[in-house]
Amino acid sequence: MEKRAFFSSKILPYALLLPQLAITVIFFYLPASQAVWQSFLLEDAFGLSSEFVGFENYRLLFQQPEYYRAMVTTLVFSSSVAILSLSCALLLATQADKQLRGGEGYKTLLIWPYAVAPAIAGVLWIFMFHPTLGTLSRPIKAMGIDWSPMLNAKHAMILLVLSATWKQISYNFLFFLAGLQAIPKSVIEAAAIDGSGPVRRFWTIVFPLLSPTTFFLIVVNIVYVFFDTFGIIDAVTGGGPAGQTTTLVYKVYADGRLGGDLGGSAAQSVILMIIVIALTAVQFRYVERKVQY
């Protein structure tokens, strides 16, 4: 018999929802609405005076070649980080799901990097791969590679992708491992008895059953690379060299906080928000069709 909860007071359900609704309104809807309104204003660097200019900030924004370059950089960076972090996490989760001696210790060590703040993760990687002081840059130079992420845009992008991927692998690993452990072992054993090899069992049974977890992680990783990698970019390259690693979210900060263009920065944040919402909607509209619940 299905059990249902009943509230004696009609106010209590709304009172329980009020804290979450207040957090959502105060920390999401109000800042978002303020950014939309600010994108129609021309303000000085200190925000002391403002003038309504309509869509002028958007018009000027789409006339900047640097903005289109930031779009391309964001596309390359986000796709690289999402693919690498998901694939590496899935590989590690499949190995950690096996019966191994000291397996719990390995799982704990793989989860720990998620507790590191993005800025700290960026500092760790720049220390390891610093062209003169980095411990890992010396072996790279010993192989004849002129490693210089401070001056070479390709090297800087590689370093950013590696650091952002390392930061996100732990989160993806945790969910993939939970998804693997939720798959009934009897299904896999039945396939093994039928003669299916490990690779075939993974692609025909395990991976389709992981599709809800994979879909969830794709959405989360897209949001991560578009927003949460700001600290890593700021710590590792600062958008350089020559703006070659400036993504959309970092350009919002660079133009608004460093350049003093508050209206243009707000317009960029609105466009970035629209892009992420559109990508999420497309994923729910088309990618979710292939998910097997």
Mind explaining what this structure looks like?
One of its GO terms (cellular component) is plasma membrane. The chain crosses the membrane at residues 12-32, 67-93, 105-128, 156-180, 201-227, 266-287. Residues 71-283 form the ABC transmembrane type-1 domain. It is a multi-pass membrane protein. Keywords: Cell inner membrane, Cell membrane, Membrane, Transmembrane, Transmembrane helix, Transport. This protein is mostly helical and 293 residues long. The protein has one domain (65-290): MetI-like (MetI-like fold, Orthogonal Bundle), CATH 1.10.3720.10. It is built from 13 helices and 2 strands; from the N terminus they run αββαααααααααααα. The protein has helices at residues 11-38, 56-61, 65-96, 103-111, 118-128, 137-142, 153-182, 185-193, 198-209, 211-228, 230-236, 248-258, 262-286, and strands spanning 41-43, 50-52. The chain has a two-stranded antiparallel sheet with strand order 1-2. α3 (65-96) crosses α10. It is globular and about 75 Å long. The chain starts with 10 loop residues before the first helix and ends in a 7-residue tail after the last helix. The mean pLDDT is 86.
